[in-house]
Amino acid sequence: MHMQDIETDAADTRVRRAERRDGARLIEMVRALARHHGDEATLTPKALERDLFAPGACASALVAERGGEVVGYAVLAVFTHLHWGRRLMEIHHLFVEE
Known about the structure:
Layout: E1 13-17, H1 23-36, H2 45-53, E2 59-66, E3 69-81, E4 86-96
C-alpha cells in the first residue's frame, strides 16, 4: 500500500488525559458519534462521572486538543484474558472532529 503525503497542522494538536472539566464536551462528542452510527446516546453527566472519573471507574479517556479546543476523544476500557493471566486495554470509542 502506498502512503500519501497529508498536510496537517498536527504540531498544534495535543493529546492528554480527560479531566472532569471536559465532561460536557465529551458528552457532545459521544452524542455526535452515536448520531454517526444512527443511534441516540443516553449518556448522562452522572454516568460519565461514574465510568471515567470516580474511584473504581471502568474506563479512562484521552482527549485531543487543537488550538486549546477539545476536538476528539478516545475511551480506553480494561478487560482481562484469564487464560493468559493478563489485563488488556482496548479502544472502545474513537472520535475526532474534522
